[in-house]
Amino acid sequence: MQQVSEKEQRQKEKRPARWFISLPELLWGAALALLTFAFLQGVNLFPWLMLAGAIFVLASMNPGLLPGLGSRRRFQLSVVAGVEGGANLVRFESIGGQETAKRELREALEFIKESERARHLGIRPLKGILLVGPPGTGKTMLAKAAATYTRSVFLAASGSEFVEMYAGVGAQRVRQIFAEARQAARQAQRPSAIIFLDELEVLGGQRGRHTSHLEYDQTLNQLLVEMDGIRTDDSVRLLVIGATNRPDLLDQALLRPGRFDRVVRVDLPDRAGRLRILEIHTAGKPLDQDVDLEEIARETFGFSGAHLESVVNEAAIFALRAGRTSIGRADFFEAMEKVMMGEKLDRCPSAQEKRRIAVHELGHALISELVRPDSVAAVTITSRGQALGYTRQAPQDDQYLWTRRELEGQIAVCLGGSCAEQALLGERSTGAAGDFDQASEYAKKLVWGGMSPLGLVSKELLPAERLSAAISQVLEQVEEQVRKTIAGYLPFLQQQTGVLLEEERISGEVFRDRLHRWQREHGTSGEGESPGSIDRSSAALSA
Ligand code: ADP
Ligand code: ZN
Ligand code: MG
Fold first, then answer.
1. Which distant-in-sequence residues (6+ apart) come within 8 Å of 221 by Cβ?
2. What is the pTM (predicted TM-score) of this model?
């Protein structure tokens, strides 16, 4: 039971290699040679070296002072080609889902496209749009699409590029990127330029929070100054698009009118959005008949656009490795597990550990199937990433609301692993630590939702001890029921442990078949056998 880990989607800019030697470099080389020569002649170089060091420090604080240092272009610049040309342009159509974000963004951009009319009506120019959302959801793509849509020049920089050791450099770079944007637009004869600032929270964090020095504050102040300086009657219209996944860290001054006026939320895609993204990324790729993108969209709850792109790519790699010429359903499933859990590892747990892992995962799977029939997608004991083994639950539909029974059911599934270990192997292990964290998260939801014995509570006023007591109470109650249920299925678990050790992976369908057969043979239908909320909720959910 592992959650999808959010991989950082940072793409560092790459500069092309330069093969020629520039004049400044030649001068520096000559100076070095001269110094070496003087040293060999016995001249005392110490004072000169001190002087050179001082100059270097000054120069790196103020790039552009010395030739050859810091005069290179720092920011990723792409002059967006005409609307008709350029096959690799990002357009709004190439972004799947995110309909709300796209609509809001397009609306905001009308002011730029229709700047004449906006000026006529005396509308204050739109200076900044803030895209807020988790990594990999398409914020960079949206900013690029905005540039294509408005036929603007596009400059991108990341917040961390502005943060330096030396005071004043960050502020200088902010000035520089605004100047470069204006210049680039003039050169390309475009009426507008879009400056994209990724990881804005690094640059625009709350002032006075960084204890070490005032560098951050100066950089942020400079950004505010530059944004205030944007006018409607400028020859080049500038628009700043910021992206962040931590808007809570931003300085309030950035969000005031006239700065980042519009905040557009870019959330993880819902099922329809995921389907759209999968369609976009599989377009033009050979897929087998049995590939059902709907099904994959259903199975990938919580995946970002970047995750989905990666699933499609990994699936193609699996097909290639297997020597096939088209991508099959199994490739997609393998890829989904890889993206979710990480690469298969050659970690070799001992035979005893393997047995424990199998028991643990079967515990999860059994409870999952009893709480929510048809919910197990696969049980495996192959190690991947952080997990030794795992049970994948197939979400039936995206879920944003949870009832008490559903939460208790999820808690039960989390606790199933360690309860099975206890029942079959006599003791528990550290393997369940992650499960407990997750179970407590669900329990917390239950408390905040006013569904615990505490009733309605205030998040701020509830003392930590009472919260922790309430969580324990919920967990213990559910655990008691899980223990009873597992006690009724001991022979089944024992038998399946052997099978799982042998097969390493049992698919959801096969697991269900075996469970139902066992229930028929032993006269249980899963109901009546074990009392408690587990079966009540299963009845409620299957009804
Ligand atoms: P962010 O800036 O929000 O971290 P990016 O825009 O850099 O995300 O997206 C990274 C990659 O993920 C893109 O290059 C694209 O391949 C894929 N991707 C993300 N969101 C979408 C989407 N909504 N539609 C299509 N592809 C997407
Ligand atoms: Zn577990
Ligand atoms: Mg990005």
1. 171, 207
2. 0.70
